[in-house]
C-alpha cells in the first residue's frame, strides 16, 4: 500500500526559506504570488493489507520522526 | 570526573570537545553512535557538527540512533548531559530539552564571536560565572533560531531555565544583539531538573587565550565544582 505525506510548518512559525523563494519569484516577474510556505513531501510503501492499520502506522511514523510537532503539521493520504 | 563524547557520522567538533574536557582533567572516551552501551560516566557530551548531513531536520536522525537510548537513560538517571550546537539540536529532537532550533532568520550560516549574558549562574554548568556576567564565545551555525510557543517561553523564564542569552557587550538583550532571530535571544537552556544543558555557542572553542579567548572555560570548571 502506498501513501504520501505532506509536512508543513505551522502557520505561526516563521518560514524564512519560503520568504526567500517568494522574493526570488518576485524577481522573475511573479508579482501576484505571495505567502509562499515551504514544506516536505514523502511517499512511503507499507507492507500492510488493512488500510486503517496502515494509515495509523504511517501517522505514528510522522509523529515519531517525519514531522516535529512543535513546529510542523502533517497530512497523510493513500495513493495506491 | 569521567565523560563520554558521542560521535555521529558528520560530527566535527568531537575531538575539540575531547581536548577541552581533558584540559580540565576530565577523563574522556569517544563513543560511536552505533554502540548500545555507554561507559559509566558523570557527563555525556553531544558534540557540534552536521550529524547525518542534517538530513530531514538538524539532529533528527541522530536523535533516533542506537546509543541515544542509553544517553536518554543517563539523563533521566540524573547524569550530566551537554549538547553543543548540533548537540543542542539533537537534544530538542529527543525532547530532553523543549523547543526547536529553526533556520537562522537571515538564512545565513553565522560564524563569529558573540556576546552572551549569563542569565542563570546557579546551574551546574554556569556556577563559575558571575551573575549577569557578559562573556564572549563563538557561534557557528545555520539553524540556531530557538523557537518555542509563548507558554513554553514563559515556563522557561519562570523556571530560570534560560542560562545564556545573546546580548551586546554591556549585557543588553535586544534585536540588534540577536544574531539568528532566537526567541528571547536564547542561546542556551537547561532542563527543569538542571542536569541537561543545550547551547548553540561553542565553549570548547574558547578555552585557550592563544586561540582567541577563554570565556568557555567556565562551563567546564562549573561541572567540576
* Rg of chain B, Cα atoms, Å: 16 Å
Mean pLDDT of chain B: 97
From the alpha-carbon coordinates, what is the Rg of chain A to the nearest angstrom? 16 Å
Assembly classification = heterodimer
Distance between the termini of chain A: 6 Å
Biggest interface, chains and residue tallies: A-B, 12 and 19 residues
The H-and-E topology of chain B, N to C, reads as EHEEHEHEEEEHEEEH
Helical/strand content category of chain B: alpha/beta
CA-based shape of chain B: globular
The count of helical stretches of chain B stands at 5
Model description:
The complex is a heterodimer of chains A (80) and B (225). Chain A contains two helices and three strands. With 80 residues, chain A is an alpha+beta fold. The longest helix of chain A has 16 residues, at 51-66. With 225 residues, chain B is an alpha/beta fold. Chain B is globular, with a radius of gyration of 16 Å. Chains A and B meet through α1 of A and loops of B.
